[in-house]
């Protein structure tokens, strides 16, 4: 028996190590939470001892665990218990789904659905409270758009929230009103949407991290309720082969819960949670982020990042563009954080050694974010900062080399492409503007300019499955024949979910590839990878996930 016998050996697998020094192998050995050897079956079986757990890979593909580089774990965990409207279209299907859901939750103070398409009731129909009232007039009902930037409430919920006559919520949010001065039911962006969530007296803490707020006071029972949501969300991630999560909303409260879970040994993924700087940046947000970074710094739970929003989305005209919206001459959207404040925050965060992630969908928002990062670099001097831009649905071609120049990372979501993953083409592509289509979700141009790309899904905004996201990326069709092919190859997509995800999180020395010495995070896939290139049902799925040397998911 070798003195350094392995705890776990996986053999009879096709290793796709994502390590350019040693790209393919047959077997791998783990001791404790580390990979100790990668090689041929003969080489690896030499590490077998009497207590080694030997797993037969049955010819499957063994890869590094997936990085989900942009998600919302607490809202995700909660979403597993809400009505998902992603596959629902038309009034009839909607009414059946909502009534069934309401019957299942007779006690709920506010019935909440998510994943609603803007075209739920038809391509040219803007949703109002009357559509919702037709399905459920007698209980407060609220539904959230597939991109989480718009909500719609029925009349009962609007009245309960005191919104029927509208409310002024500042420039970034809107209670949409009709010609008679009554709320239509449409609520744009967080401040307006939060008014409806406030109807609930319990269990609304999952959205606080989206605005960078902390709960006022939390009972032990409420903490346990949230820990249960986090646990369910993480188990769902492990089932999809994910081992590291970069959360993209964040407050101290979530980190406290996650640290508690780590102590109990119930974390099934590693997770990084940023501090989401509130839009008005009141107080000392950078100081708070630095303190969170100091207080939470284990191998599984960390901070180290600030998150901000520069704009919203095209479908409700809150994406910030460089040109006018085609249907609204003179209007381009507005930056959520004014440029001078944004530059100051970036400069302070950068000087403190924090990584910055900013939501930017329109080409105008992307430019503002690059300007802020460039200002920070000019003030503090160049460093390996890897500041990230989240989404980049659209970018001006001049800004791609600028991203490269300042060392920025593109965090992109193949499942956000209009016409993919249940999202309709319209009105998004029209509002984006025909002239911008060549630069929409153009992974190829960004990648080939030397800008690192990590992929993610923004779950629960889009479906979590990384293989589904890769399938969306590989099968994307151009919106017209004259557009360039923006797709990456399968290998490049895998890099975006492994090595590049690790790079984007400063994790490349310890995660992202199956390399001896790195932490033992991996996924075993069963089935044909070639099915990732085809439309139709995916023929490949995770059967085993290991995080930190421990099995976190095993298919039955
Ligand atoms: Zn997000």
Automatic annotation (TrEMBL):
Instruction: Extract the InterPro entries matched here.
Output: Amidohydro_3, Metal-dep_hydrolase_composite, Metal_Hydrolase, YtcJ-like
> What is the protein name given in its UniProt record?
Amidohydrolase 3 domain-containing protein
- Boundaries of each Amidohydrolase domain copy? 54-553
* PANTHER family xref list: IMIDAZOLONEPROPIONASE, PROTEIN LONG AFTER FAR-RED 3
Family matches, as Pfam families? Amidohydro_3
| Top-level taxon of origin | Bacteria
Q: Name one GO molecular function term.
A: hydrolase activity, acting on carbon-nitrogen (but not peptide) bonds
Please list every transmembrane segment annotated in the UniProt record, as residue ranges: none
